[in-house]
Hints:
- It comes from Rhodococcus chondri.
- The chain is of the alpha+beta class.
- The chain folds into two domains: 25-61 and 152-202; 72-147, no CATH class.
- The protein is built from four helices and five strands.
- A five-stranded antiparallel beta sheet has the order 3-2-1-4-5.
- A hairpin with a 2-residue loop joins strand 2 and strand 3 (116-123).
- Helix 2 runs antiparallel to helix 4 (151-203).
- The longest helix is centred in the C-terminal third of the chain and has 53 residues, at 151-203.
Amino acid sequence: MMTTAPSWSVRWWRRAPWHRSPLLRRGDRIESTVALVVAAFVVMMVPIAATYGTITYGNLAAQAQLYQRIHRQVEATVLDTVPPEAAMATSQTDHPPAPATVPADRRWVRWSMDGHAHTAQLSRPADVRHGERIGIWIDSRGVPVEAPRSGTDSAATAVIGALALWAVVLAGGSGLWYAVHRASRHRRLQGWEREWDRADNASGWSAG
């Protein structure tokens, strides 16, 4: 008569630290206890990591709102050559005159702030054409600054942070369990070697 092997759930239940099986050694119970504690802690970290991500998103959104209050966005016109005022300023320095064209990844732009014209060379896609109007962010002095963080960027950063926190806990818990597992296995193998030595000494025959 053939018997079927017990399911994985039954096998795990028999390895539970509270099970009264005589086959469970002290090391097995310690390993099972550590596994249960690690699994419970990893599960508990899910809402904690979610809370961390929510707080991170709120902080980033608040920073973006503050950034938008102290900076503002203006429309700038893309130029195809160096503006005269920039070329004149460059020629008055010890550096060589600026070339007539600009690199493909940068564009000269001109914008107005409080009735005063400003120019600067900014990084822009190569497909931006001469005369096209683009939005740029400037500070209170009219100096170009980075665009504020978007809501999508804030959400992505918050999600990545939450997942990273949970992954660190998972990796740490798994490492702890593996260390206990290796130590338990090492002690178990040493116990088997001692049992073989005792059997060898008692019977007079070599177990090797």
